[in-house]
Amino acid sequence: MSTKLKNEYLTASTVLDAIDRHWTTYSTPPTLEWLRRDLNLQSTSNVSYWIEKLRDSGLLLDKAENDSRAKIVPVWVHEALRQFPTEKVRTKCESQQ
Q1: Is the separation of the CB atoms in 56 and 44 below 8 Å?
Q2: How far is CA 94 from the centre of its chain?
Q3: Is the pLDDT of residue 40 over 70?
Q4: What is the pLDDT of residue 60?
Q5: 90-95 long-range CB contacts below 8 Å, 24 or more apart?
Q6: Cys-Cys with 29: which of 17, 61, 71, 83 at CB 3.0–4.6 Å?
Q7: How far is Cα of residue 30 from the mean position of the Cα atoms in its chain?
Q8: Residue 57 and residue 91: Cα distance in Å, rounded?
Q9: How many CB atoms lie within 10 A of CB 16?
Q10: Once rounded to an integer, what is the mean pLDDT over residues 61-87?
């Protein structure tokens, strides 16, 4: 489902909604390209700008220092995975904090 927006009307909430929609539908993080298309943006650099704003506001997890291809993970997904009963998932979540 694509959201047809003009760039001047794009908000952090709209970007977060697109990220949440992707996680809810596919159970994986969206790519910058997927978000670019879904939000009808010209460039992935526009998506990166909004991702950084959401990370700075605490709504997305910070990327690991040594991870050049950081995943786009909302805090709610991280919290849900921490409740998952397997040791492998808990260890991975704790290592990203």
Answers
A1: no
A2: 18
A3: yes
A4: 84
A5: none
A6: 71
A7: 6
A8: 25
A9: 19
A10: 69
Stretch (H or E) spanning 72: none
pLDDT in tens, 18-31: 999 998 899 888 99
Residue 8 has pLDDT above 90, yes or no: no
For residue 82, give both structure tokens.
């921490």
Selection from 89, 62, 87, 90 nearest residue 74 by Cα: 62
Residue 87's pLDDT is 60
Q: What is the dihedral of CA 18, 20, 24, 26, to 10 degrees?
A: 60
Selected residue with higher pLDDT from 75 and 59: 59
Determine the distance from the C-alpha atom of residue 77 to the mean position of all C-alpha atoms in its chain, rounded to a whole number: 10
